[in-house]
Amino acid sequence: MSSQEHPTPDQLKAMAYVDGELPAGEWAEFESRLRREPSLAREVAELQGLALLARQMAPPEPQDHEWERLRADPWHRLFTRGGLALLLGGLGTEAALLLLGIQNEVGEHALLFSGGAGLAGFVMLLAAALRWRTRNLPFDPYVHVRR
User: Fold this and answer.
1) Is-contact 40 47, C-beta < 8 A?
2) How many other β-carbons are positioned within 10 Å of the β-carbon of residue 63?
3) The pLDDT of residue 7 is above 90
4) FRET label pair with 37: which of 55, 71, 137, 141, CA 20 to 30 Å apart?
5) 48-98 residue pLDDT tens
């Protein structure tokens, strides 16, 4: 942006474009102007660079620290990875037994076992999600916001 005291209308539109706040009706027109006007395209590129730099310089949120603690927690990893493995394995086994039509040969116990594994995996994933939510709830900035 130039060293003027107030931004020009084009600069304001460029800022809105970079922020994704340009109205839908003006979006296509502005993009066609970007193809025709190199100076406007340079202005947008500079603003995009500034937006990227600002995102990189922002300090981590308190919730980000809690995410890192959860990722390092062996119980959380066990519940998410183990739950996903059990859920997919159980459902995959159920589907294979039913599609191959061999559920009668292997017996009812195989269907119950694979269904139970899928259900256990689902419960483990639900428990991991609830644990994540309760651990991050104190860091949620929108908890006290009312509509």
Assistant:
1) no
2) 14
3) no
4) 55
5) 888 888 777 777 777 777 888 888 899 999 999 999 999 999 999 888 888
Entry pTM? 0.54
Question: What does R_g of the chain's alpha carbons equal in angstroms?
Answer: 26
Residue with tokens 């890192």: 68
Q: How does pLDDT run across 112-143, given as a tens digit for each residue? A: 888 899 999 999 999 999 998 888 888 777 77
Angle at CA of residue 13, ends 49 and 46, nearest 5°: 15
Q: Quick one: 86 exposed, middle or buried, by C-beta within 10 A (0-12, 13-18, 19+)?
A: buried
Amino acid of residue 3? S
**CA dist 18 → 33, 54, 56, 59, 107 (Å):** 14, 13, 16, 22, 61
CB 139 within 8 A of CB 132: no
Q: What single string gives the DSSP state of each residue in 94-113? A: HHHHHHHT-HHHH-HHHHHH
In the chain, the amino acid numbered 114 is S
